[in-house]
Amino acid sequence: MLQIHDLAKRYGENTVFSQVSLALRAGEFVALVGESGVGKSTLLNCIAGLDRADAGRIMLAGTDLATLDDDGCALLRRERVGFVFQAFHVLPHLPVAENVALPLWLAGHGRGAGIERAEAALAAVGLHGFGARWPAELSGGQLQRVAIARAVVHGPQLILADEPTGNLDPGTAGVVLEVLRRQVREAGATCLLVTHSAAAAALADRTLRLTPAGIVAGGA
Ligand SMILES: Nc1ncnc2c1ncn2[C@@H]1O[C@H](COP(=O)(O)OP(=O)(O)O)[C@@H](O)[C@H]1O
Ligand SMILES: [Mg+2]
Predict the structure, then answer these.
(1) Domains of the chain by start residue, with CATH
(2) Full-prediction pTM beyond 0.85?
(3) Atom 16, ligand 1: which residue's CA is nearest?
C-alpha cells in the first residue's frame, strides 16, 4: 500500500538520505529506527506529502505523489493518512472531542456526526466520557490516546507515528503502544512507527533501520 523507490532528500548542500526504498503491505505494523538526525521525521513528512523529496518515487495507495500538486497532496493526506506526533499536537483551546472530530469536519462531515464518531473513537482508546474535557486536564498518556483517536477517526489506510511515546514514561508508553497497535489492526490500516524504544520495535511485525545510505532490515 506504500512503495518508496530510491528516495533522496537534501537541504541545500546537505544530503539527509539517498537511495531509500521500502514497501509496506496493507495491514503491516512496521517500526522504523535510526540514529537521531538521520532523517526519520523528514521521511515521514515526505510520505505524508508535507515535504517534497529531491529524487525517487513514493506510491501511496496506488498514487504517485509526484503527480499531485500541494492541494492534491493535502486531499490524499486528509483521506488516507493519520499522523501521531511525539508532542501530541492536541489543540489546547478545543475540547477533547472537537480535537478528535477535526479531521472529519475538514473532510466535510457535519458537526454532530463528527462529534458522534469522535466519542466512539475516544471510547475505543479507553477515554469514554472524556469528550467534553479540556486537554489541559489530561495526562500525557491520555493526550497521546486522544491523538491516536484523532489519527484513526477518519479510517485512514496509513498511520504515520513519529516517536509517539518519546514524551512518556515506560509504563504509560506501553499502554499507548498497545492502544495504537489495536487501533491500527481494527482499522485494517498500515502503520509506520518511528521509535527509539526497543520495546516499541518489539511490538512491530518487522523493523527497518534508516541509514544515510538507505534502509536496511534490522532491530533497534
Ligand atoms: N527544514 C529543514 N531545513 C534544513 N534542515 C533540516 C530541516 N528539517 C530537518 N533538517 C535536517 O535534516 C536532518 C534530518 O532531520 P530529521 O528528519 O528531523 O531526523 P530524525 O527524525 O531522524 O532525528 C537533520 O540533520 C536536520 O537538521
Ligand atoms: Mg525525528
Answers:
(1) 27-46+77-217 (3.40.50.300)
(2) yes
(3) 39
